[in-house]
Amino acid sequence: MAKPVTINIAALNKQINVPTGLFINNEFVPSVDSQELIHAVNPATEEVICSVVAASPKDIDLAVASARKAFQTTWGKNVTGFERSKLIHKLADLIERDAQELAELESLNNGKPMKIARDFDIGDSVQCLRYYAGWADKIIGQTIEVDNKTKLAFTRHEPIGVCGQIIPWNYPINMWAWKVAPALAVGCTIVMKPSELCPLTALKLSELVKEAGFPPGVVNTVPSLGPVGGAALAAHPDVDKVAFTGSTLTGRKVMEAAAKSNLKKVSLELGGKSPHLVFESADLDQAANWAALGICYNSGQDCTAGSRVYVQESVYDKFVELLVSKVKELVIGDGLDDKSGGGPVVSKSQYDRVWGYIEAGKQEGAKPILGGIKRAGKGYYVDPTIFTEIRPDMKIVKEEIFGPVLSVGRFSTEDEAISLANDTTYGLGAGLHSNDANQCMRVSSALEAGTVWVNQYNILNNNVPFGGKKQSGIGRELGSYALEEYTSVKAVHWNFGEKLDWPL
């Protein structure tokens, strides 16, 4: 058994016990062949919180074998939807019970404000689990007319099998729920690889999986370095499906490995460079609020971050003034402080990446009208930075930054706005603000994105599908559409009356 550690949170005058082993077959175990550790760091202080076991390829093999055994014996087609639903509901109840402690741990390891982790990330994750618990006993096929006198056909939507799930560090609990809930609802088993930057809450959630009563092997958690554990899952010959959320670059590698191994099913939720259009008829005060949320929420570490805002010329100056005033009101600080509306970025490498883009923006001639100055002291803090006087060829306009860095441009006509918005290799999200209903319909239809927000931004619902176009990925999460990613449709042809004459 791998021993848990006790984490002291001085700011809250409390302690949290955290498992540090690999969660395989409902037990926390050490690696079978490696002494390598993953060091979880607090981005607000730059201090190591604790260290957890890093899974090797052989550990991945054990986790997959555990998931396969469970799929064939105690899960998969061997339990009813009613039983699956009951257990998923129980897991949701336990997460809700422990929401405060999970939020504290999330804030400590990820940096995001504790209140946001608790009230938004975890609250939404509980709802996600309950939503899919409701689907578990409603997985149905079709009866298809072939020949009423002699034959019929029907379809079964069967669980696809063992699923490798690779989640990112920006929403460690939320992304866990998005992946786990639909897979469990249809009867799949799971090998989960959390990000090496934020592994702690996935391990803590694994304790709750066991407490909820899921059979051993249904959910396995294997913290590992991406090129080790992630690569092993993507290429594993006994994994039936891999779901990945992360960068487009890594998504390509996952898809390639899946194709070269057993041609497993793949769903990818990848990067974005999402546009946000503000038309002259919009409620500018509200549009500024949503634009501020679009780039500042989660410190800009969001695949749908509205990192390109284009404003109609007639209202450009007024809108930019409003936007700057809104962003200035946000408090960026330690996530354990209730005054903070945003925290540090997740790691030193991410901090350096974001600052590299800020410097590139300056060098290429963009004008920083807010931010762009480094803080002194500890912590990977990046204050929101707004650039104007941008060009389409600038790095800050073309490439995903994954930090609170906003490019603001202008347009004169609706056609120009649409052209600017769609001038990207990505297609995850897009937003528009207008009080002209016809314009809202025209523009939302023309925007090349999997999700379009009208007079709001970045708000998702568990019953509405989410996913990308172009290089932002394939497949869908959330809603009933996500169930299709974890099921295989079997057609059964039943002959009850036709006699075959032989030979032909």
TrEMBL record:
Residue intervals of the Aldehyde dehydrogenase domain: 34-492
Entries under Gene3D superfamilies matching the protein: Aldehyde Dehydrogenase, Chain A, domain 1, Aldehyde Dehydrogenase, Chain A, domain 2
Alphabetically ordered keywords of this record: Oxidoreductase
Signal sequence, renumbered to the chain: none
Keyword Zinc-finger: no
GO molecular function: aldehyde dehydrogenase [NAD(P)+] activity
PROSITE patterns in the cross-refs: ALDEHYDE_DEHYDR_GLU (PS00687)
Chain coiled-coil ranges: none
SUPFAM superfamilies, per database record: ALDH-like
Active site as annotated: 269
Entry's family note: Belongs to the aldehyde dehydrogenase family.
Name used for this protein in its record: Aldehyde dehydrogenase
UniProt lineage: Eukaryota, Fungi, Dikarya, Basidiomycota, Agaricomycotina
Gene of this entry: aldA_1
